[in-house]
Amino acid sequence: MKKVSLICALFSLLLVVACSVQIEDKAVEVSSDNKNQEIVKFDRPDASILKGVKIPADKLYFYTSGLVADLINPDAAVGKYERYGDTYQQSISILKKIQATLKEGGFDLEDVFFLRVYLAPNKEGIVDWDAWFKAYGEYFNNEDNPNKVARSTIAVYALANPDLLIEIEAVAAK
Q1: Contact 87/165 with Cβ under 8 angstroms?
Q2: pTM of the prediction?
Q3: Domain ranges of the chain
Q4: For burial by CB atoms within 10 Å, which of 29, 83, 115, 124 has the most?
Q5: Rounded distance, CA 118 to CA 94, Å?
Q6: How far is 136 from 147, CA to CA, in rounded Å?
Q7: Any bridge partners for residue 172, and if so which?
Q8: Does residue 9 surpass a pLDDT of 70?
Q9: Is 117 within 8 Å of 166 (Cβ atoms)?
């Protein structure tokens, strides 16, 4: 009876070791298939943004927080455009800030693959989509930076500061 128990125990040990080796070998094979794959962009030639982006597992990522415009004139009254600017001015301010933040992390605008944009209505109650689209076109999908990104642009009731009309998050990979 002891021989049978000993044989079963040895057989179980061999089975566990064999399975471990197969799992490790499989893991090496899977990860080696993902090495040096390119980022794939699913384009829409008729649009200024992409349908989607596929990022391979071996790429580095960089995320910004939701960034807002810099204060232009601290002496301007709250609620006046002179304080932070209109939607276009705020968009440009944020895109410059995104560019600088990316640079700190060793990334460029060319590495951005996704933007999430929150637009709030101005004091007249209008969400100025065109101002944002114009600013976007000055930083993406142009001659200097042909990079298109996947993007969500969302109208919101308000941002945390009533003087702010836009907030942008960026995600980059390389």
Answers
A1: yes
A2: 0.77
A3: 1-33, 40-173
A4: 115
A5: 12
A6: 11
A7: 62, 112
A8: no
A9: yes
The pLDDT of 76-88, averaged and rounded, is: 92
Dihedral through CA 132, CA 137, CA 138, CA 140, nearest 10? 110
Tokens representing 4 are 């049978």
pLDDT at 44: 87
Is residue 148 within 8 Å of residue 41, measured between CB atoms? yes
Residue 164 has pLDDT above 80, yes or no: yes
DSSP state of 38: P
Contact 151, 49 (CB under 8 A): yes
pLDDT tens figures, 11-59: 444 444 444 444 343 333 334 455 678 999 999 888 999 999 999 999 9
Domain 40-173 carries which CATH code?
3.30.1330.40
pLDDT recorded at residue 4: 47
Amino acid identity for residue 83 in this structure: R
Write down the residue that tokens 């298939």 correspond to: 33
